[in-house]
Amino acid sequence: QKEVEQNSGPLSVPEGAIASLNCTYSDRVSQSFFWYRQYSGKSPELIMSIYSNGDKEDGRFTAQLNKASQYVSLLIRDSQPSDSATYLCAARRKDSNYQLIWGAGTKLIIKP
Amino acid sequence: NAGVTQTPKFQVLKTGQSMTLQCAQDMNHNSMYWYRQDPGMGLRLIYYSASEGTTDKGEVPNGYNVSRLNKREFSLRLESAAPSQTSVYFCASEQGGETQYFGPGTRLLVL
To answer: CB-based burial of residue B72 (10 Å sphere; 0-12 exposed, 13-18 middle, 19+ buried)?
Structure first.
């Protein structure tokens, strides 16, 4: 099993709907998770971090962490065409305070 | 406040040539990182520097060397470029286990 896994997509969602992005992880990562957004040809930028079981909301974005099932998800409400990007899930390695392990990313397309 | 800067933006090399990618941050961060990003593979860590004066290997260090010149600057050197090193290279910095901030990237093509 890869340490951090994401469905590569593309995930196509109508404008105004909820986009749901998922990430599963192995026992080799710690409980610090990050969602980054990367527009084509640009560098990744942080959307949200989550460290505790449950939900964390920031505007239209909600991150959810389920430690028992070892998955973390990102919900985007009222999806906009500007949300079309690749979303990268990352987790801190258990044996390192510095290293992040990255999923391959899910490409999200919001259709007007 | 420029954040993280990288030079050059684009580079074409011939097999066997050498080059150094430069990275600088003005956020007074202790930790700096070099990643490569290939299609379908996400970001892979090449080397990192937890603090000034230290460097450590990541998951794909072969063919690369790094120098943490001072707190601001962290360079990546390819001594003898190979076509397998064609990639997009990102530098990032971080303070205290929080957000990693990325530079704009260097697109490298090795022929």
So the answer is: middle
Enter the tokens of residue A29: 């990562």
> How far is the alpha carbon of A57 from chain B, nearest alpha carbon, in Å?
17
User: What is the structure's pLDDT at B40?
Assistant: 78
Q: What is the DSSP string of A51-108?
A: -SSEEEEETTEEEEEETTTTEEEEEESS--GGG-EEEEEEEEETT-SS-EEE---EEE
Q: Mean pLDDT of all residues in chain B?
A: 95
* Rounded Cα–Cα distance for residues B69 and A5 (Å): 35
**Closest chain B residue to A105 measured between Cα atoms?**
B42
Going by pLDDT thresholds of 50, 70 and 90, the confidence category of residue A26 is very high
Q: How far is B15 from chain A (nearest CA, A)?
A: 25
Give tens-digit pLDDT for B45-63: 999 999 999 999 999 999 9
In the stretch 25-44 of chain B, residues with CB closer than 8 A to chain A read 31, 33, 40-44
Largest CA distance in chain B: 39
Contacts of A92 in chain B (CB under 8 A): 97
**Token pair recorded at residue A93:** 């390695």
Tell me, what's the pLDDT at B1? 66
- Whole-angstrom Cα distance, residue A108 to residue B80? 37
| Yes or no, beta carbons of A46 and B50 under 8 Å apart | no
Entry field: residues in chain A? 112
